Amino acid sequence: MPDSCALLARLLLTNGWLMATAESCTGGLIAATCTEMAGSSNWFERGFVSYSNAAKCELLGVDAALIDAHGAVSEPVVRAMAAGALAHSRAQVAVAVTGVAGPAGGSAAKPVGTVWLAWATPTGVTSEVQHFAGDRAAVRQATVHHALARLAELIQTETPA
Asked: What integer best gives the mean pLDDT of the chain?
């Protein structure tokens, strides 16, 4: 994890960018991982913990109709969370996550370990679903690692070497 975060920090600093997070199932772990690094105030702008549906709407501007239509753990909602994190911050990039960490709350359509992730960058919003194995702690840690590593990859593909 520290390697992904250190790489991300270097990329953000090189571009003069700030990042924001919009977290549901990780409850602030992505922000905590970033801010464990000394000097993170130079590239980490803010984190939103939007665990409840109401918080997603109030803090990030997610349309309640999206949640009603698709559920909180869905592509439209996570994309709106990522866009909302940018709109409600001074950041140039954002990561958003919403999922079912378990042990309860899963369904046939969205079993425990289902996590939707989205990354907002200057070129748009990218999203994907992952199915992480393990207990609640393992799902949350895998989400943090994937969220940070993928953001670093996206920044590398969008900016000149």
From this structure: 95
